[in-house]
Design a protein that fits this description.
Layout (H helix, E strand, L loop, with lengths): L2 H12 L3 H23 L10 H13 L9 H27 L9 H6 L5 H17 L1 H12 L4 H8 L3 H31 L1
Helix pairs in contact: 1-2, 2-3, 3-4, 4-6, 4-7, 6-7, 6-9, 7-9, 8-9
């Protein structure tokens, strides 16, 4: 099925056609599953969330999108990445609330941005930094969201955003530097607070 067909189904769904949603789900399921796989590919037992479970939670959230005005495939997968991010963050918060930090491992900042969401603490730290980044650079923060939480590679992001891979690569580099600095400051800030 073409992007045009997916866009048509999304637009019919926006108009209240529930059958369009039912026809859309099998078409996008494999791609959503692949996104979830990418997002969770190196997930240790800290999160205990499998790709299929992530897609199913995403499906439940999508069903509740009664007022969404779907424009196209890019918007749909952008929203899907945001929803996956919220699911992972909520799940990480629940895990930390249950553990209260027991057995938490430190993840170097360099690794945090080069790997998918790995631990509950990493997910929350990146989410907090990304919220701050979105306030100053929404476009680059979308790239981080799709890459880190959505598991997309740079070429897929370029296709979805309809920009060149070079542009996405440049934006990703700038975003990584900014987030690296923020996460380092968070780590050093916590360490100095804990030392007091």
């Amino acid at each position: 099925m073409t992007n045009h067909d997916v866009t048509g189904l999304l637009q019919h769904w926006s108009s209240g056609d529930q059958q369009a949603f039912e026809r859309l789900v099998p078409i996008v399921y494999d791609e959503l599953r692949r996104l979830a796989d990418g997002s969770l590919r190196q997930e240790p037992t800290d999160l205990i969330l499998q790709p299929t479970a992530l897609v199913h939670e995403l499906y439940l959230k999508l069903v509740d999108q009664k007022r969404a005005q779907w424009r196209d495939r890019e918007q749909f997968f952008g929203v899907a990445s945001k929803m996956m991010r919220r699911i992972l963050v909520d799940h990480a918060r629940q895990r930390l609330a249950g553990k209260r930090g027991a057995g938490a491992a430190h993840v170097p900042v360099e690794e945090a941005l080069d790997q998918p969401a790995e631990t509950s603490r990493t997910v929350l730290a990146v989410d907090d930094a990304l919220k701050r980044f979105a306030e100053i650079d929404p476009e680059r923060s979308r790239i981080v969201e799709m890459r880190y939480f959505g598991g997309l590679d740079l070429e897929e992001i370029a296709d979805l955003m309809q920009v060149s891979r070079t542009t996405v690569k440049r934006h990703w580099s700038v975003a990584r530097m900014w987030l690296h600095r923020e996460l380092e400051q968070d780590i050093h800030g916590r360490a100095s607070l804990e030392g007091n």
